[in-house]
Design brief:
Length: 271
């Protein structure tokens, strides 16, 4: 089986739009006919609940998978996958015990950064996903380090606000540190999120990010749109909940850009 392309939505700044981005990227890729495995790497479980998976994953979840990858001789990553109601979309959900994972990973001695990589390798032996899309927690901790080591591309959503652009240099350093271990890791791009171009600070914020990251900002920006919060409240992905909303269409456009960055051809949209 082929190894999937692993896309990780990351930013240590809380509320920058990681889970919203991951939730929409998954459906937009699935709409194009790709098989997608979403993995919720955040103990807040926001991505899992968006897909109605709040009650799932008591036994099968990312916490168990990472503990078992170390402990079970016949570890089979595919056993931790749950099916969703959405075509082409499967999941590994988060669990509240994920809070324990940071210390648990610290305590494991050998190959401390390779646990998530081993999980993906194990899944690739039996399953055929085109993409894995990770949502991550708002830290620069050991779990995120493991996820970066297992990734091909990091996609960084940045909230278009003063707080959103302040202190972003740290994620760049974190990326550089990780790429010493994972030479294959690339920055897929920066997504400006919650953009309101009528506000003058929006343009300033975009300039600040351009100065810091250069030309890796995606052309497509995600506007402030109440349908994002509404769909999350209703525990449904934005792209099926409000398929014609402004943000949904922007996430689709963004996904086309992501596909061109990762070198996969855009497929005919199946609606
Ligand atoms: N385009 C948008 N328009 C309006 N609200 C948005 C938009 N994108 C995200 N939000 C809202 O902003 C909040 C933060 O977004 P989200 O949960 O995706 O960020 P996050 O980076 O995953 O946060 P955390 O760091 O806590 O995991 C949520 O309440 C979400 O509904
Ligand atoms: Mg989140």
């Amino acid at each position: 089986m082929a190894k999937p392309t692993v896309l990780t939505c990351a930013n240590h700044k809380g509320g920058s739009g990681k889970s919203s981005l991951a939730g929409s990227l998954i459906i937009a890729l699935a709409e194009q006919g790709y098989r997608v495995l979403g993995i919720d790497g955040d103990m807040q479980r926001n991505l899992s609940t968006t897909y109605g998976l709040r009650e799932f994953g008591k036994e099968k979840n990312l916490y168990r998978a990472i503990e078992d990858v170390d402990e079970l001789e016949n570890f089979n990553g595919a056993e931790y996958i749950v099916k969703t109601d959405y075509e082409n979309v499967d999941f590994i959900v988060s669990h509240e015990d994920m809070a324990l994972l940071e210390t648990s990973l610290m305590l494991k001695m050998a190959e401390r950064e390779k646990y998530v990589s081993k999980l993906i390798e194990s899944i690739s032996e039996t399953e055929n996903y085109d993409f894995v899309v990770f949502d991550t927690n708002p830290t620069l901790g050991v779990l995120n380090f493991n996820i970066f080591v297992a990734s091909d591309y990091v996609i960084i959503p940045v909230e278009c606000s003063a707080y959103g652009v302040d202190g972003l240099g740290a994620i760049l350093k974190f990326y550089k540190n990780t790429s010493r271990v994972n030479k294959n890791l690339k920055i897929g791009g920066i997504v400006m999120s919650k953009v309101d171009l009528r506000k003058s600070i929006a343009k300033d914020a975009i300039e600040v990010v351009k100065d810091m990251f250069g030309d890796v900002i995606f052309d497509t920006m995600i506007s402030t749109d109440t349908s994002v919060e509404k769909s999350q409240w209703d525990e449904e992905p934005l792209l099926t909940h409000s398929p014609d909303s402004r943000a949904a269409n922007q996430y689709r456009e963004l996904t086309k850009e992501v596909l061109s960055v990762v070198g996969k051809k855009e497929r005919i949209v199946q609606k």
